[in-house]
Fold:
Amino acid sequence: MSHLASPAANRAPGRLGSWRQPSVLPGFGLTFGFTLAWLTLIVLIPLATIFIRTAGMGWSEFVAVGLSSRALAAYRLSFGTAAAAGLVNAVCGLLVAWVLVRYAFPGKRVVAALVDLPFALPTAVAGIALTALYAPSGWVGQFLDPLGIKVAFTSVGITIALIFIGLPFVVRSVEPVLADLGKEVEEAAATLGANRWQTFNRVIFPAIFPALLTGFALAFARGVGEYGSVIFISGNMPGKTEIAPLLIVTQLEQYNYAGATAIAMVMMLASFAVLLLINWIQAVTRRRAGA
Structure:
């Protein structure tokens, strides 16, 4: 009868019963087991080696390498420039995504392809190009140097390199959400008397904020671990423009594998804490939007 619902229909979303609903894939147990096995092989085992190798060090040795003044300066530079580049990309990436979604113009496909270029371009090539551009004798640097503005071999140059490689993450995260939102939402808000700022602040931004935060997280994570495009433009001066990934490579070149894993573990824990915070903000935002 129509008033009788099947047991499957009465199951609340997210409970164990909903996991066992018919699916194209061959069942929850098999797919979940494969997921755990694959993540263990690709992610957990390599990360576990860092903890195991670091556990062999004494606390004093760990602090002497992983928390030294040189390492702390490298952490501040890597995380600070990655966060700054992520914030710039969040603003500029939103504007680029808006233009690509909302407007039709000649050469749109070329612009869209240029957005993805940092994905395909070797990072070392990007670093060499940016260094040639912003060095004191470069195309742009030769005009900035007389003004006392230094970009190459400073934290500013590192930030620019991270902006270059991080922009596509924000654009490609926000673009599909904007496309699904459509212009009808803006028109509906306008008919209800909302001005442009109110429409963006109360209608559009809450809808795209989770995707924007995801793009920021991806750009930030990429920036923290970036090496190839940064070492050319940073100058690699210890305590000033030396990034944490370069410090790890330096330890490896000195055959100090325990020291390299100590620095890697500090970076991994700090990155995990930041990404966990971002995921928590996303969950709170979605929960408030659902309410």
